[in-house]
Amino acid sequence: MDPSASGIQEPFDLIRLSLSERVFVKLRGDRELTGILHAYDGHMNLILSDVEETIMIVDTEGAPDGQGTVNVAKRRMEMLFVRGDGVILVSPPSRT
Amino acid sequence: MASQILPLELIDRCIGSRIWVIMKGDREFTGTLLGFDDFVNMVLEDVTEYETTPEGKKETKLAQTLLNGNNICMLIPGSAGPDDN
Amino acid sequence: MDDTPPPPSEQSPPPPPPATHTGSPTDFLKGVVGKRVIVRLTSGVDYRGILSCLDGYMNIALEQTEEHVNGVVTNRYGDAFIRGNNVLYISAAEVL
């Protein structure tokens, strides 16, 4: 059974096929990461290297109608463990 | 001895009828119940989602929908939902 | 002891054939794989795409995914893995 002809039978296959590739990870708390995926497990704990983290900071102070300004902070880490329960979404590099 | 009925037996009797689902947060659903499982994940049809946001109330119409049981708080059988008084 | 089962009555209807569609979550998911779906997270963010596959935790693999925040497309992913604990619902976006 392969409805999409993409060789994916279960969601984790998507992650398995992204090992050693650069992935995009969306985390709780308005955090985003891109990095090279080295390892994962069933909790979606991840090991990433060459990571760039992007944090969205919405500043609502003194802004009308709650239309706060969004500040983006970025930082780099060489090697990172991500605890699985914070993961919302993982997107592998495009396979096309 | 009073006849015992399990809570989920009551929900089983609602299959095919309208049901009102109230979530733990500020979110409610109504729809026709097609089925559910032991986690009370529910399949609903002709669904309306009701959201209470700071901007006001929001309604969304949905077709057949699998609702995650994780955030369900209460079920009201046979009700058309918040607008049904 | 004295209760013998009644002989098969000619009036009793034959058992109904097993329902092909019982409406259970499992049946819904079987029917919706390969179709366009809307996945809403508890945060209110929507992901619209083609459902590649999913597992018992409601972990989801989506193709041709669009991320919608307040009705605005905020991201596109060729593939996306969504961790099941974030999922509020999966709704069919085309006829089943």
What does this molecule look like?
The complex is a heterotrimer of chains A (about 100), B (about 80) and C (about 100). With about 100 residues, chain A is mostly beta strands. Chain A has 1 helix and 5 strands, in the order H-E-E-E-E-E. Chain A has one domain: SH3 type barrels (Roll). The longest helix of chain A has 6 residues, at about 10-15. The two termini of chain A are about 20 Å apart. Chain B contains 1 helix and 6 strands, in the order H-E-E-E-E-E-E. In chain B, a hairpin with a 3-residue loop joins strand 1 and strand 2. The mean pLDDT of chain B is about 90. In chain B, strands 1, 2, 3, 4, 5 and 6 form a 6-stranded antiparallel β-sheet that branches. The radius of gyration of chain B is 13 Å and the shape is globular. Chain B is about 5% helix and about 50% strand. Chain C has a domain at about 25-90: SH3 type barrels, CATH 2.30.30.100. Chain C has a 5-stranded antiparallel β-sheet, with no helix packed on it. In chain C, a hairpin with a 5-residue loop joins strand 2 (about 45-55) and strand 3. The model of chain C has no long low-confidence stretch (mean pLDDT about 85). Classes of the chains: A mainly beta (about 100), B mainly beta (about 80), C mainly beta (about 100). At the A-C interface, helix 1 and strand 5 of A face strand 2, strand 3 and strand 4 of C. Chain B: This is LSM complex subunit LSM5.
Question: Short summary of the structure?
Answer:
Chain A contains one helix and five strands.
Itemize the secondary structure elements and their pairings:
The complex is a heterotrimer of chains A (96), B (85) and C (96).
Chain A: H1 11-16, E1 22-27, E2 31-40, E3 46-59, E4 69-82, E5 87-91
Antiparallel strand pairs in A: 1-2, 1-5, 2-3, 3-4
Chain B: H1 7-12, E1 18-23, E2 27-36, E3 42-53, E4 56-62, E5 65-67, E6 72-77
Antiparallel strand pairs in B: 1-2, 1-6, 2-3, 3-4, 3-5
Chain C: H1 25-32, E1 36-41, E2 46-54, E3 60-69, E4 72-82, E5 87-92
Antiparallel strand pairs in C: 1-2, 1-5, 2-3, 3-4
